Amino acid sequence: MRFHTREVFDLAIAWLALGVAFALFFDSFLGIDLRAALLAGDPNALLSPAILQVFGLSMLTAGVGFLFHELAHKVVAQRFGQVAAFRADYGMLFLAVASAFAGFLFAAPGAVYHRGRITKRQNGLIALAGPVTNLVLAVGFATLALFSTGFLGAVGVFGVGINLLLAGFNMLPFGPLDGRTVFAWSKTVFAVTFVVSAGSAVFVLLQFGFGL
C-alpha cells in the first residue's frame, strides 16, 4: 500500500479528531465530565487516569473503526489499479468535535478518493469494503468483550457498538455514503449487506442507547 505524506497527515489528524469527538460522546456513558475539564483548561484534569482512559477507549474503538474502514477502501481501489488516497475534511472534523461538545455527534471525517478506469462492479466492491470491514471488526471486538474484563472488556463492548453503527450508517443508500454506490452496482448485495449492517446497528441502539 502506497501513502503520500499529506495522506498520512490527514489520516492522523482525522483519527485524533475523531478520538476527541467520540471521547466527548463516551464520557456520559462512563460518568466522566470531559467537557468540564476541557473548559477549565486544567492540564492535571486532562491528564487524569479517567480521562486518558476514555480517550484511549475512543481511539481504540471509533478511531480504529474509522481507520480500517478507510484503509479497506484504499486497498481494494489499489487492487483494481486505481490511484487512491484519503483526504480529510477539516471543516467536518471541526463539526464532529463541536457537535460532540454540544451533546450530539455528527462525524464525516473525509473519504478515500480514487481515479482511473473502473467497472461498476469494481466501484461497488470498493464501496462495500468499508462497511464489511466494520462488520469484521465488530466480530473481533465481540470476542474481546466476551473474554476480557476491565479496560479491555470496555474496548470490546464499545468496539462492537461503534463498528456496527459505522457499518449501518455507511450502508444507507443516500448522498456520498457507501450504500448508494453498492445499490447502483447490485441490489442483491446491497440488500444483504444493508439488512445485516442496519439490523445490527438498530439492535445496538435499542439495547445500549448509543444515541447517534
Automatic annotation (TrEMBL):
Transmembrane segments: 12-34, 46-68, 88-113, 125-147, 153-177, 189-210
Keywords annotated in UniProt: Membrane, Transmembrane, Transmembrane helix
Protein name per the record: Peptidase M50
Originating species: Halococcus hamelinensis 100A6
Lineage, opening ranks: Archaea, Methanobacteriati, Methanobacteriota, Stenosarchaea group, Halobacteria
